[in-house]
Write a structure and sequence with these properties.
Layout: E1 5-9, H1 20-30, E2 34-37, H2 44-61, E3 65-68, H3 71-77, E4 81-84, H4 91-98, E5 103-109, H5 112-120, E6 125-128, H6 145-154, E7 159-162, H7 170-176, E8 180-183, H8 185-188, H9 193-202
Parallel strand pairs: 1-2, 1-8, 2-3, 3-4, 4-5, 5-6, 6-7, 7-8
Helix pairs in contact: 1-2, 1-9, 2-3
């Protein structure tokens, strides 16, 4: 599948457990192309239950569910793929466990050398950021849109931008070469999640073959 569009990333601080599935459904209705389940604080039993519920929703709606960091959880719930950070298993290990069709993304931060290693290991998309001040990771290393331009010249893989992205600043990243806009607070921190998703997804219309 083509990896392009709004990449909705959940946050347990923004999404109470009893509203998680419903709110993610609104994001999908608004146009989210990918969903990532990201929860680093809830008990394992709750995380398993939520991942299974989200996988059922995403499968019904035809949207891939990506699990953040937790390879065992991705396998357990039958997710479409996993997103790997600095301290997670390498893409080749994830591929062995999730299968040849899994979507494997890797956080490359502001590091092209890390992106080269991820691409060589079989990553399906490369994530860069943070590009703007982020409430989720305020201390993350800043990245510049020129990094996306350099990555676009070097890699044929889809590029994902993350970090403080809003509909106002997103066009700068799209013009620099981003294929995916990973959004947390700019989506799930908004009063109307469906409308927020639609505003982001509308930015992709007419971009590189999309209508």
């Amino acid at each position: 599948m083509e990896l392009r569009g709004l990449y909705a990333i959940t946050d347990s601080d923004l999404l109470p457990a009893d509203r998680l599935v419903e709110t993610v459904s609104h994001a999908i209705t608004g146009g989210a192309a990918l969903v990532q389940y990201r929860d680093k604080t809830s008990p394992p039993q709750l995380r398993r239950a939520q991942a299974i519920a989200l996988q059922a929703l995403c499968e019904t709606r035809g949207v891939p569910l990506i699990i953040n960091d937790d390879l065992d959880l991705a396998v357990h719930c039958g997710a479409a793929g996993i997103h790997l950070g600095r301290d997670d298993p390498d893409p080749a290990t994830a591929r062995e466990r999730l299968g040849p069709d899994a979507i494997i993304g890797v956080s490359c931060y502001a590091d092209l050398e890390r992106a080269r290693a991820a691409a060589a290991a079989g990553a399906d998309y490369l994530a860069f950021g943070r590009f703007f001040p982020s409430s989720t990771k305020p201390g993350a290393t800043p990245a510049d849109p020129d990094l996306l331009r350099a990555a676009r010249q070097e890699f044929a893989l889809p590029l994902c931008a993350i970090g403080g992205i809003t509909p106002a600043n997103a066009p700068l990243l799209l013009e620099a070469g981003a294929d995916l806009l990973a959004v947390i607070h700019g989506l799930f921190g908004q009063p109307d999640v469906r409308a927020a998703a639609a505003r982001f997804q509308a930015l992709f219309k007419g971009k590189r073959g999309q209508t």
